[in-house]
Amino acid sequence: MSKKFGKVIICAALAGPATMKTQNPAVPYTPREFAEEAARCYRAGAAMVHVHARDDQGMPTHEIERIRDTYNAIKDKTPELIVNLSSAVGFGKTPEQRLAQIMAIRPEMASLNTNTMNFSMIDRSTGRIIADFVFENTFTMLQDFGKAMESEKIKPEIECYDMGGIDNTLLMAKQGFFSEPLNFNFVFGVAGGQAFRPDAFIAMVNALPPGSVFTACGVGLDQYPSITQSCLLGGHMRVGLEDNIRVPGGGLAKGSYEQVEWALRIAEVLGREPATPDEARAIMGIRTS
Questions:
Q1: Segment 12-33, tens digit of pLDDT
Q2: Which residues is 48 bridged to in the sheet?
Q3: Which long-range contacts (CB under 8 A, 24 or more apart) does 206-211 make?
Q4: Are 56 and 30 in contact (CB under 8 A)?
Q5: Residue 21 buriedness (CB in 10 A; 0-12 / 13-18 / 19+)
């Protein structure tokens, strides 16, 4: 069954907007740390890294020069890698700040979020609210960010935290500005989004337009079940310290690269080989010229 699906793209999300060194010392903050971790992920089998740049204190930043320095450090050390920048950046950033850094740096791919939602930190053992945010992504932003990315040949990675994100994207796609194939990333386990459920995953895959490419990631304990089901269904896999600081068994991950190694093991058991960056570009329809 797995042979017909072809190669699997493994993406490593290196930091995110919230994971800190106090939780796992391997979280990168500086451009050099991002570059070194990205190189380790590439050697482990990743074709792409997803990046939220940080300042020296570890806070997510929208400052274009810091993001550019981080991006350039990764590309200088590992030019083969696809670098996927975040258009979310971090909490509290304006739409203008979020989009400006994407347009200034023009990566091959960038995230495109699909709906306004709660995006919070909650202690899952007690239900206690630790931090509470509203993540703003209006239809106007989905339209304007998507059009701007496509105009610069930046492939959108369409982030869906539930089925509604797919429906919102399909509604905007009627305007005709998205290039094919559409690339979706299903995000499971965010407090405010959808928890991982195998039947919900299948329903989301069935809702995609023909020819779409899909990846999955999961927060915390949802990480490994979600990437395993994605691989089983012909999709792709995202791991990394943005989503989860641990490896199977509960130990702290030595870095995102160790989670890439686990993703590769899962793929190999299911009979799928990892895609190279150039193979990933072809699968996702990234325009190279």
A1: 999 999 999 999 999 999 999 9
A2: 11, 82
A3: 207/163, 207/166, 207/167, 208/166, 208/182, 208/184, 209/170, 209/173, 209/182, 211/180, 211/181, 211/182
A4: yes
A5: middle
- Helical segments of 179-251, H only: 198-206, 223-232
Q: DSSP 3-state assignment of 85?
A: strand
In this structure, the number of other CB atoms found within 10 A of the CB of residue 200 comes to 15
How far is Cα 92 from Cα 70, in angstroms, rounded to an integer? 21
Q: What one-letter code names the amino acid at 225?
A: P
Radius of gyration (Cα) for the chain, nearest Å?
Answer: 17
| Residues written for the chain | 289
Query: Which pTM value belongs to this model?
Result: 0.96
DSSP state, residue 88: S
Domains present along the chain, CATH in parentheses: 2-284 (3.20.20.70)
Instruction: Express each pLDDT in 158-208 by its tens digit.
Output: 999 999 999 999 999 999 999 999 999 999 999 999 999 999 999 999 999
**What does the block give as tokens for 86?**
């975040």
Buried b (16+ CB within 10 A) or exposed e, 211-239: ebbbbbbbbeebbbbbbbbbbbebbbbbb
